[in-house]
Specification:
alpha/beta; Rossmann fold; 7-stranded mixed sheet; two-stranded antiparallel ribbon; about 40% helix
Length: about 280
């Protein structure tokens, strides 16, 4: 909470409707009727400065959205932008994911993109959110990839070694060194690297966990969840399908694990994917 109060995230730099959460057309597979039903209740766990709620409000104009975050600074900025845009169906609240079980509500859709990996126990937070998901609901999850974050892990080790602090001076000193060294391609290619708030979130985060595809598969199996596919650029999907033809292969996590092993930059942003409880239909 202190980190994001001091450095609200993410920055609003371009049209939020075009950049947050990825283009829905990039889904490996498309969720069926539950995705498009009007008047659905949506929970955004970790809404940041409000770009994610804006994106959903524009794509699902009749939905009722509850957006939560730990940071008051994030929420204050999100509320102000919401008032400026005249959006009526977004409710904001300061809340801890681990305490949401007492909310007394269920949701047709839950988005937890970029938040679970910052919890002390990501799977505990994930379980709480699942308890709030309607039987025919969908959950969109985004967590860091162990393979894709190798550059970040090395940069974080450098921060610890040199004692760089999460201050503007520490952030600038680190950035200058990384730019001079040109050692970490993923870091240099991240838009977050070039702003103080973004760089703090990227490299100085007080809590970061990373996942592997087998870990995700194990969690889904343990809780009887259905995997509906990753969100990826069409070029990556095409490359994957050349190796593993057929639409069903897109939901095969063993195939994706093997593909990532040979292409470790595949999920350089995050693993972003959709899951549901059993029985939800799909449109291929």
């Amino acid at each position: 909470m202190q980190q994001y109060d001091e450095n609200p995230y993410p920055r609003w730099t371009i049209n939020p409707c075009k950049v947050v959460g990825g283009d829905m057309k990039r889904h490996a597979r498309t969720i069926g009727s539950s995705e498009l039903r009007p008047n659905q209740d949506i929970l955004i766990a970790g809404c940041g400065t409000g770009k994610h709620p804006f994106w959903l409000a524009h794509h699902f104009p009749h939905a009722r959205i509850l957006a939560i975050d730990l940071s008051r600074a994030n929420l204050a900025y999100a509320r102000r932008r919401t008032r400026q845009e005249g959006l009526q169906d977004i409710e904001y609240a300061q809340a801890d994911i681990l305490k949401l079980g007492a909310i007394g509500r269920i949701f047709d859709r839950i988005d937890a993109v970029g938040v679970l990996h910052h919890l002390a126990d990501p799977k505990a937070g994930w379980r709480v959110l699942l308890s709030l998901l309607a039987p025919n609901g969908i959950m969109r999850v985004g967590v860091y990839s162990e393979a894709a974050r190798r550059d970040v892990v090395q940069a974080r080790a450098l921060i610890a070694e040199r004692g760089y602090g999460p201050t503007i001076e520490g952030i600038r000193t680190l950035r200058q060194k990384i730019i001079r060294d040109q050692r970490w391609e993923m870091v240099l290619n991240s838009g977050d690297f070039y702003s103080a708030s973004g760089c703090r979130d990227l490299l100085f985060n007080v809590m970061e966990h990373r996942f592997t595809i087998p870990e995700i598969a194990s969690f889904l199996k343990e809780h009887g969840l259905v995997f509906h596919g990753f969100e990826l650029d069409a070029t990556i999907i095409e490359k994957f399908q050349q190796r593993y033809p057929g639409s069903e292969s897109l939901c095969n996590l063993e195939y994706w694990d093997a593909f990532e092993a040979d292409n470790p930059k595949t999920f350089r942003g995050m693993y972003v994917f959709t899951i549901s409880k059993p029985g939800l239909p799909l449109i291929n």
